[in-house]
Automatic annotation (TrEMBL):
GO cellular component: a single term: plasma membrane
GO function terms (MF aspect): transmembrane transporter activity
Lipid bilayer topology: Multi-pass membrane protein
Transmembrane segments: 31-55, 61-85, 106-128, 148-167, 174-194, 214-230, 251-270, 305-330, 351-373, 379-405, 417-439, 451-474
Superkingdom field: Bacteria
Entry keyword set: Cell membrane, Membrane, Transmembrane, Transmembrane helix
Protein name in UniProt: APC family permease
InterPro entries cross-referenced by the UniProt entry: AA/rel_permease1, APC_superfamily
Chief location of this protein within or outside the cell: membrane
Compartments it resides in: Cell membrane
Length: 488
């Protein structure tokens, strides 16, 4: 027998089985929430796998500066984003805010698009993690050489279990992983600093003469993408203690910490290679250039530990992406846009367990298709990460428009001029440029295959259009559900 309860968020009546709670539950504090969202950024993956690429293809030795600029843009967006969270206390985050500011049709398009973003992230990182584990076991431990998908299946099962449980469990796992990652990066930074790099420490990477070396646009695009995850602060509103204090602290803590960590480590990496040789070596060796500096300055043990944690860092990203995708699906279920059974809350764990199971199943099916079709794991990973980046930046661009519109319409801007107008304008310009540059350079995710790039871009914006069309249909056929779009 079923009963009717009210899901988190005003005006959302959903059916659930007896014993289901009325809201997701959790007791995350500032540090728990910080660890959850920082883990999504995968700092060790950024340091070892992205920074060398940014030095090679972005603005060269000026890359430390571009992290400061990217952090400033994201901080501006976070300022207006958190102002909106104080005014509109709903857990739907971008989905809810775009709906409130630009209307339910655009809002549902944004909701579908962000669900795609987190789903593709969880799906794409699985073969990457499986391949990383396989390489470590066979290469470092001299163990058996097994297909990537066997390791990926074990990771998938672990993520599914954690997604089913209370959010606090995932947070604790990710806190341990993140602390170890950061420890490795800090040890690396200290060793390079103490030994003075290759030729003595130089502040040239922060000099205005190098700010616009190479491709500043490409560097900024990648830098902005490295500050993701702060949407989770609002998405987990029902699962944190004292959200009015916890959410801002965690969000700004993430941005400040990531900016200092990435800019500082990039500066030391450039010095470890030598300012004059950093770009050439990064271009020639790619990510192996960072491995070489770890070996030279930290030794074999530090490199082996970093390699292990690179795997666990990927695991943390999958856990985060899975959790957020499940909560997007939960919110869509609470609104009645998809089956309301997906908005059921586990009576013991307070988790969106049905939505979590659906996400796990979809991720498994997508990867099984890749295995059966014989698609290269890394090609699949690159393509899906490209989709995730483009969708996230596009929806943030929309949100930068939606929030000031809502604040003006409801006269909630007074006394908050910077958060209501200045900050979102800066974010709008930054994200708008990033969207254009992301589309222009999307072929880098598909190995230069133009038709595949066009197809994947079409999938991104086709998903948005599908959400828009679904909202139009609901407006005609189910106006009661239409009114609830965006947790309204």
């Amino acid at each position: 027998m079923s009963t009717t309860t009210t899901a988190s968020g005003p005006g959302n009546t959903i059916p659930s089985t007896a014993g289901d709670s009325t809201a997701l539950k959790g007791s995350l504090g500032t540090f728990g929430l910080f660890f959850s969202i920082m883990s999504f950024n995968a700092p060790l993956v950024v340091v070892m796998g992205v920074i060398p690429i940014m030095v090679a293809t972005g603005n060269g030795i000026g890359t430390p500066f571009v992290f400061v600029v990217g952090g400033a843009i994201v901080a501006c967006f976070a300022t207006t984003f958190l102002r909106m969270s104080a005014v509109l206390q709903r857990p739907g985050a971008f989905y809810a805010y775009v709906s409130a500011g630009l209307g339910r049709k655009v809002g549902l398009g944004a909701g579908f698009t962000m669900l795609l973003a987190y789903f593709t992230c969880a799906t794409g990182y699985l073969p990457f993690a499986g391949s990383s584990v396989g390489s470590f076991v066979s290469g470092t431990l001299n163990g058996p050489s097994l297909p990537w998908y066997l390791w990926a299946f074990l990771i998938w099962a672990l993520v599914g279990i954690l997604g089913y449980l209370r959010i606090d469990v995932s947070a604790k796992v990710m806190a341990v992983i993140l602390c170890l990652e950061i420890a490795v990066v800090v040890v690396y930074d200290i060793t390079v600093f103490a030994r003075g790099g290759a030729d003595g420490l130089s502040v040239a990477p922060f000099s205005p003469a190098h700010w616009f070396d190479g491709s500043f646009a490409t560097g900024l695009l990648l830098a902005c993408a490295m500050f993701g995850g702060y949407e989770m602060t609002v998405l987990f509103r029902d699962e944190v203690k004292r959200p009015e204090r916890t959410i801002p602290r965690a969000a700004f803590g993430l941005i400040a910490f990531a900016m200092v960590l990435y800019a500082g480590t990039t500066w030391l990496f450039v010095n470890a290679l030598g300012v004059d040789d950093a770009v050439a070596m990064s271009t020639a060796e790619g990510t192996a250039a960072f491995d070489a500096t770890i070996l030279e300055f930290g030794g074999r043990l530090l490199l082996d530990v970093a390699t292990v944690l690179l795997v666990t860092s990927s695991l943390a990203v999958i856990i985060c992406a899975h959790n957020v995708a499940a909560r997007y699906l939960f919110n869509l279920g609470a609104d009645g846009v998809v089956s309301r059974s997906l908005a059921a809350v586990h009576p013991r764990f307070g988790s969106p367990y049905r939505a979590s199971i659906v996400v796990s199943t979809a991720v498994l099916i997508a990867n099984l298709v890749v295995v059966i079709a014989g698609v290269d794991a890394m090609v699949f990973y690159g393509a899906l990460l490209g989709i995730a980046a483009l969708t996230g930046i596009s929806v943030q661009f929309l949100t930068s428009i939606a929030i000031p519109v809502y604040l003006i319409r409801h006269d909630k801007w007074r006394g908050h001029v910077f958060a209501s107008f200045v900050a979102p304008f800066v974010a709008l310009i930054g994200f708008g440029w990033s969207v254009v540059m992301s589309i222009d350079h999307f072929s880098s995710h598909t190995g230069g295959v133009t038709w595949l790039s066009s197809l994947l871009i079409a999938i991104v914006y086709g998903t948005f259009i599908s959400g828009f069309l679904v909202a139009m249909r609901l407006e005609r056929t189910k106006p009661d559900i239409y009114q609830r779009i965006g947790r309204q």
